[in-house]
Amino acid sequence: MKKLSILLLFLLPMYTFAQDIDSLVLINGDVIVGEIKNMDKGVVEIETPYSDSNFKIEWDGIEKMYCNTNFMITLSDGRRYNGHITSTDPSTFHLITPTETVDVNPDDIVYLKSINNSFISKLSANVDVGYSYAKANNLSQLNASAYIGYTTHRWQVSVNATSLKSTQDDVDPTERNEGGVTGKYFLPHDFYLTANVNFLSNTEQSIDLRTVGLLGIGKYVIHTNSAYWGFTTGASYLNETFDAVYNEGSGNFETQPARSEAEWFLGTEINLFDTGDLSFMANAKGYRSLGGSDRWRADVGANVKYDLPLDFYVKMGYNMNYDTQPAEAGKEIDYQYTFGFGWEL
Questions:
Q1: With pLDDT > 90 as the criterion, what percentage of the chain qualifies?
Q2: What keywords tag this UniProt record (predicted)?
């Protein structure tokens, strides 16, 4: 069996050239032939002609590989390449780009994405919905979220949106809607520039519309096949309008004055995914007013996701908004727990 694996290792490169496919040799000697779609969070997904579903293989279970697929490749030190991967030594993988060949340790490769000239090949997306109902007070809650991203060799843009609506007897309905557009430009050594515009409406904090635009710089301090952790900092500009407030004296609803101010922000994000089908992500961002007021704000989010077959998943999430100087009718803190079932591309 060992001799057969060695023979296949030498024959498959020639077959690969002829058929424009990829081959993987696993540490147990098995050989898989197909087309590698991606490697993310320590898991390789490969499509084969002899299976109706893609194989998923742990990255550290691969001993050697020979690929004709063109990849976007990210290394743990932040370097990014477009090219192919070959190897005959388990300790060294060769990244073959249009201009050079780079030898790297396979443990330093943290992301692969097969690319071609199509727009779809650079897209990623997911959507999930959740619903809960309690007989007491007819409490009903609906939540939904969606994400779509587009990634190239040097930059990334993404759009996200979340919505939560809750109703129950004898209580005013509550609603929270949030969305934003984020752009990143990747720099050497795992630094990146970021720009973001975010929108929020929140009945609990009496926010009709909060718009925040920010510019900053970020750095990944941990970037491996099991986790990443990074920080961002920069300047932001806040503009807020608020829900009308009922004045008992006049018997009318009165408009609260809008607010605008410049801020400084500091944020962090951590993602843990070397736990089988389970992954965890948390992020936090704190804002400090630069306009002379002693105002602090914070946005915190976390979710746990469990992957199911056919790219479905279940997710539990938590979101919190804090403001030391909320609107007149709003509360300093608001938080939500959500549960959803979704699908990702």
A1: 33
A2: Signal
pLDDT band at 116 (very low <50, low <70, confident <90, very high): low
Q: Are 95 and 136 in the same domain? A: no
Instruction: Tell me the pLDDT band of 132, cut-offs 50, 70 and 90.
Output: confident
Look at phi and psi of residue 152 and say left if phi exceeds 0, alpha if psi is from -120 to 50, else beta.
beta
Residue 203 sits in a domain of what CATH number? 2.40.128.130
Query: Which two tokens mark 194?
Result: 């970021």
The three-state secondary structure class of 106 is helix
Range of the domain at 284: 122-344
331 and 190 in a single domain? The answer is: yes
Residue where a domain terminates, one of 71, 88, 116: 116
At residue 11, what are phi and psi to the nearest 5 degrees? -80, -30
Whether the model clears a pTM of 0.85, i.e. scores above it, the answer is: no
Q: List C-alpha distances in Å: 100 to 81, 94, 103, 336.
A: 10, 10, 10, 50
The answer on 223 and 112 residing in a single domain is no
Statement to judge: residues 201 and 145 lie in one domain: yes
Cβ atoms of 22 and 13 within 8 Å: the answer is no
Q: Could you give the CA distance from residue 131 to residue 339 in angstroms, rounded to a whole number?
A: 8
**pLDDT tens for each residue of 134-147:** 766 677 889 999 99
Type of residue found at 94: H
286-331 tens-digit pLDDT: 999 998 788 999 999 999 998 888 788 999 999 898 999 887 767 8
Task: Quote the number of domains for the chain.
Answer: 2
- Bridge partners (DSSP) listed for residue 35: 47
What are the distances in angstroms from CA 94 to CA 28, 47, 134?
Answer: 22, 22, 57
**31 and 170 co-located in one domain:** no
- Round to the nearest angstrom and report the end-to-end CA distance of the chain: 38
Residues found in the chain: 345
Give the integer Cα–Cα distance in Å for 289 and 265: 9
